Amino acid sequence: MRLPFVVMLLLVFYSTHLFSQDRYWIHRPFYENFFSGASELAEWSLVEDNGTGSFTSSGSGTAILKMDDAAGSYANRIFSVNGGGNRYLPLDSIFGRLEVNILRTTGGVQRFFVQVQTFTATNTYINQINILPATTGSGFFSINMRDFAWPGNADKVRFIIGGSNFSNQQGTIEFDYLSYGNTSGVWNNAANWSLTSGGPGGASVPGAGNTAIFDGAAAGNGSCQVDIPVSVQGVALRGNFSGNIDLQNAAMHIGSGGVSMATGGVTGNTSNLDVAGDVIITGGAFKSSSGLMSVTGNIQVSGANLNMNKGTLQFNGSSNQNFSSTSTTYIHRLVVTNPTTITLGSDLPVLDSLVLNNGIVNTGSNSILLGSSTANPGLIVGGGNGLINGKVTKWVSAPGVLSIPFGDMNYNASLSLNVLTAPSVPGPITVSYNDFGNNMVAVNFADGSS
Questions:
Q1: Cβ(110)–Cβ(165) under 8 Å?
Q2: Given its phi and psi angles, is residue 437 left (phi above 0), alpha (psi -120 to 50 degrees) or beta?
Q3: Dihedral of CA 105/106/110/112: which sign?
Q4: What's CA 346's distance to the chain center, in Å?
Q5: How big is the CA angle at 418 (ends 416 and 419), to the nearest 5 degrees?
Q6: Backbone phi and psi for residue 70, each to the nearest 5 degrees, phi listed first
Q7: Residue-wise burial string across 5-26, b where 16 or more C-beta atoms lie within 10 A, e elsewhere
Q8: How far apart are CA 415 and CA 81, in angstroms?
Q9: How confident is the model at residue 227, as a pLDDT?
């Protein structure tokens, strides 16, 4: 008897989720200082002084540069990375980046500046360059070394930080972080990624199934420069990460894992960023310079700053999206393509233009703040299927017709206001729409006196 010949085909399906793993950023910069104690302060030496100032620690990771005018009409402090002797760092004129975070200033007008001295390979001094001109106020400053012209024989650098006070009074400049990153800090380098927090490098560069995590393991990690187009499942900035994620003109796609940011910074530059999930920012500073940021999920900002004063933010979800922010710099351009609704949990400031291609923006008790000055009066671009259900505060400084596409799911109640005479004092006008059901009557208003 002949036994039947049986062929068995075994098909094994591998889910991409089986291989989805987190990738942890572990890069360290050339130099980093958190000013958390005397040893870190000792790395800086006073090289010039006018007055009786000092450089001390507050005991909580903050360096205090004291500006005392007792010796004359102004105080000037200059400190350099010396630590008892010249400390040279390698020059990376392409990917090098200096970052400093100023917490606050006190006592009149305090100016803070950063300079760099260049040296040859044999430590011969060449010249000095101002890479952060005197500036006032607090904030996070990220400086590209490639933005400056460097001598051809420059091989090493030494950084100088300084402050000046021309207010004839005592004051302070407080800062808690300074770092100098380098070329090995690029995204596309497996040595910068680990499978565990603070673990060894050598993991694969994050891909579509991975979440890239920046958690500040081992007392903080250096900044990351995105040097290739990126597609990942999610990005998370956690813990004490003090660096910056800098999109170097490379687009980034973030999947349904979205963006969660508790510290550090993100700088978009001219790059496009699209997020298929939520954007949750509870700390740090998010800045998109001039690119497009397209979001499918919700945007929630609390205790941090969302800065898109030169870029475009686009709501492109297919279901309701929410926007809420405690601190948002005017968004340069806002585009709504979501066919359903955008619900505001706070005011939404738009500087240049609001483009309503689709959907309904429900403002609730909040307002769309459109324009901020005579130079930037703001513009509403309608004509599509986009409507505003709620309140608009629009800057008015000249005669003209102000058209607002008000309405909701039931009514299109677009409004036109004809400003006949320029206001004597330019400023904002607030107009609100509410749906009262079927008890609506068309009314013409004529007001030529105010």
A1: yes
A2: left
A3: negative
A4: 19
A5: 135
A6: -60, -25
A7: eeeeeeeeeeeeeeeebbbbbb
A8: 62
A9: 84
* Pairing state between β 360-362 and 387-389: parallel
Contact 101, 175 (CB under 8 A): yes
Triad 18, 21, 25: Cα angle to 5°: 170
Tell me the helices (H) and strands (E) count for the chain, helix number first: 1, 39
| DSSP symbol at 5 | P
The CA-atom distances, in angstroms, between 299 and each of 105, 214, 260, 294, 342 are: 31, 20, 10, 11, 11
- φ/ψ (deg, to 5) at 198: 75, 10
Residues of the chain with pLDDT under 70: 1-20, 46-54, 57-62, 67-86, 166-169, 182-184, 218-220, 383, 436-450
Distance CA 272, CA 250 (A): 7
Tell me the pLDDT tens digit for each residue of 195-249.
999 888 889 999 999 999 999 886 567 788 898 999 999 999 998 888 889 887 7
Comparing C-alpha atoms, which of 370, 364, 355 is closest to residue 389?
A: 364
**Alpha-carbon gap, residue 97 to 161, rounded angstroms:** 15
Residue 440 tokens, joined:
């609506």
